[in-house]
Specification:
Largest sheet: 2 strands, antiparallel
Strand order of the largest sheet: 1-2
Order of helices and strands: EEHHHHHHHHHHHHHHHHHHHHHHHHH
Shape: globular
Number of strands: 2
Radius of gyration: 24 Å
Distance between the termini: 40 Å
Length: 554
């Protein structure tokens, strides 16, 4: 089968023909092949991300054992705000939302134009026009943060007992703006090229660098060794991806036909300042919840910031795993919209939301039901006491109430930005949630202390998720909102029942590991049974696969 290429603007067809390829999600064969590839990529990404998350827990365990939940850890965690924000802005959300659609459009332009005429390749032109400018911007921001570390610490945590320690750590962690920026650029480019292994491995390299530096330098540098590890880990993130991206660019076609109606240089066609401002403002608003939490917790007794950090790190693991599928399918949605296939984009987004909700709510049920056992097994060693375990577990249960909101925001916002066009609605929704978090946090911290801060976080992000979801039909990929809400309601009902079952079973076993195992088994059994009974669509492929395996075995 062959197809004729056209410019898509009413001009005469080009004189060359190329074999038609099966696009993922188009046609039966293409749909099956694409679904299989996406499942494989998602499993690969989830596996490496889980390994990185486990190493992240190892990093937190090392911090807890060496420094406990005291003033040194609090000082480091104020400096940790820099890599946390940089991760959101430059790797996970902001830069990815801008660059993945840009690279997807460049790849689509290369594929439709062919390679018979010698002209600048759109992908190489995009790299040449954007990477040097962005690298200089990252370097300037790193230098600015180093110079302004003292006022930044005073702004983030004015009640710290030892601000100089936080200043020293902040100057070390400020290097991550450069390294994370370059790592995020490589990740976006590779994912658009359907290369998922190097981007998925970056957190393995990152946390390995932090742990190794901490173990080597902790005796001499104290908690500053962890900040130095951030600098080392950031460099490793770039080194893991750079060779693969270089090979991709070298193997690109020598030429392509640019759109004759667009006279701008190829490197400037896909990225504009408005789009950059929108995605970075959204990511900054989302990450500002961490600023609010650290600011409010700095006035509480020593250890409050550490309790928030440990609780959030563990509670967000289900959310991170649930979004791995959306990370893999983001280029798929962007390419579908680039070629005008809105129906495929809609179906893909609806499936992603349903499946991500199943994953995150099953994890949230385990986190709520078994919070004390999880914290005791992970952190109650060395300087981390039983009192720290009880306080951190209570905060983690509150955080788990907002996990569905965090997951939905991460999944939905990709749909808003997948077309590569700037839209201010996600920024306004995130700003509304941020203001609600700040207002509720100021009131709740005086009533419930550190737990009130976590409750304000859950409330703000849930409101943001609702705002984004209800406007999808008008401002983004036109999903069927009633269908999505029905599936979410059924999944949420199953999660509530599973949480109750997990609490009852975990309470019957005294030994922490056995109690955790009992709670997890109860949650999994009840959650899966109710998903099947309620006919949740995201769970149907699992039932179908199990049925086929059983028939084959028989």
């Amino acid at each position: 089968m062959r197809r004729v290429l056209s410019t898509g603007r009413g001009k005469a067809p080009l004189s060359r023909v190329v074999p038609a390829q099966a696009d993922p999600g188009r046609g039966d064969d293409g749909h099956r092949a694409g679904a299989t590839s996406l499942a494989r990529f998602a499993l690969l990404t989830a596996g490496l991300s889980a390994a990185g998350s486990l190493l992240g827990l190892g990093r937190d365990q090392a911090l807890a054992q060496l420094f406990g939940a005291g003033p040194q850890t609090d000082a480091f965690l104020v400096a940790w705000t820099v890599p946390e924000v940089a991760t959101t802005l430059l790797i996970e959300d902001g830069l990815a939302f801008m660059l993945v659609p840009a690279f997807s459009a460049a790849i689509a332009a290369r594929a439709t134009a062919g390679t018979t005429l010698r002209a600048p390749d759109p992908v190489r032109a995009l790299v040449a026009g954007s990477l040097p400018r962005l690298a200089l911007a990252f370097l300037a921001c790193s230098a600015l943060l180093m110079a302004g570390a003292r006022p930044l610490v005073a702004l983030l945590a004015p009640g710290l007992p030892d601000p100089q320690l936080a200043v020293d750590c902040t100057r070390l962690t400020a290097t991550c703006v450069l390294t994370f920026g370059l790592a995020g650029y490589c990740s976006a480019a590779l994912r658009a090229h359907t290369s998922y292994l190097p981007p998925a491995a970056i957190y393995v390299a990152y946390n390995t660098g932090i742990i190794a530096t901490l173990l080597v330098l902790a005796d001499r540098w104290g908690v500053r060794a962890a900040a130095a590890g951030v600098a080392v880990g950031g460099c490793l993130m770039v080194l893991v991806q750079a060779p693969s991206l270089r090979r991709r660019l070298r193997s690109a076609p020598l030429g392509a036909v640019p759109d004759a109606a667009d006279t701008r240089p190829p490197g400037r066609r896909s990225i504009n300042l408005t789009m950059m401002a929108v995605v970075l403002l959204f990511a900054l608003c989302r990450q500002s919840q961490v600023f609010i939490e650290r600011f409010l917790a700095s006035s509480l007794p020593s250890g409050a910031i550490s309790q928030l950090n440990y609780a959030q790190k563990v509670a967000q693991l289900p959310m991170m795993l649930s979004l791995m599928l959306c990370t893999v399918t983001f280029p798929v949605v962007a390419k579908a919209l680039a070629r005008g296939d809105v129906e495929q984009a809609r179906d893909r987004v609806e499936r992603d939301i349903a499946l991500a909700a199943c994953i995150v709510l099953s994890g949230a049920a385990v986190v709520f039901a078994c919070a004390p056992q999880i914290i005791q097994l992970l952190f109650q060693h060395g300087a981390f006491t039983a009192a720290d375990t009880a306080a951190t577990a209570a905060v983690m249960r509150v955080y788990s109430l907002g996990l569905l909101g965090h997951c939905l925001v991460g999944a939905l916002v990709r749909s808003y930005f997948s077309a590569g066009r700037p839209t201010w609605y996600p920024v306004a929704s995130m700003a509304a949630g941020m203001l609600l978090t700040a207002g509720a946090g100021v009131w709740a911290v005086g009533v419930w202390g550190v737990g009130g801060i976590a409750a304000a976080n859950a409330l703000g992000i849930t409101v943001t998720a609702l705002l984004l979801l209800t406007a999808m039909g008008r401002r983004s990929v036109p999903v069927r909102i009633s269908v999505v809400l029905l599936e979410l309601a059924k999944t949420l009902l199953a999660a509530v029942a599973a949480t109750a079952a997990g609490l009852l079973c975990a309470a019957r076993v005294e030994q922490p590991l056995g109690s955790l195992a009992a709670g997890c088994l109860a949650v999994g059994a009840v959650f899966g049974l109710l998903l099947w009974a309620l006919r949740v669509q995201a769970f149907s492929p699992v039932v179908l696969l199990a049925t086929r395996k059983l028939r084959h075995a028989r």
